[in-house]
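ok trying again, last paste got cut off:
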Amino acid sequence: MALQVRVAPSKVVWQNLLICVILFYTVYYVVLGMCCVMLKVYELDVLAPFDFKTNPSWLNTNYKVLLVSTEVTYFVCGLLFVLVVEEWVWDYGISVTILHVAITSTVMLEFPLTSHWWAALGFGLISMICGGQTLAYCLFKDNFIYPDLDDF
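nice, full thing came through this time. structure:
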């Protein structure tokens, strides 16, 4: 006799979202550390993932570290989210990004209005969704969920 545990669908969604957020920030800090070592930046703040006030200049090494770590994190997390949420990468990617903006606003005590930060976030989100959804399609194409558009 097997023990059967039924989990409410909303609980699964919240659990997956929590896993994705933890995965996102774990990857972010690992990539940030690697970028700091590669670009020889030794004075970066612990709150670097939330920093949107750094001067956007290619001469500013801190800015390059923040930009590269953001883009690499988004792309890698798009691939890793497939392991957690299968074909719903786009949904969880958008949700994690919205949470990241909310956490950033809370940590920095102001809403980010800098265009370079939003551009980096947008490009990262697009790469997350495209890379993750492509991998999800390749891995799960036999049981991929297609919407039924006949009733529209």
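cool. The mean pLDDT is 87. The radius of gyration is 18 Å.
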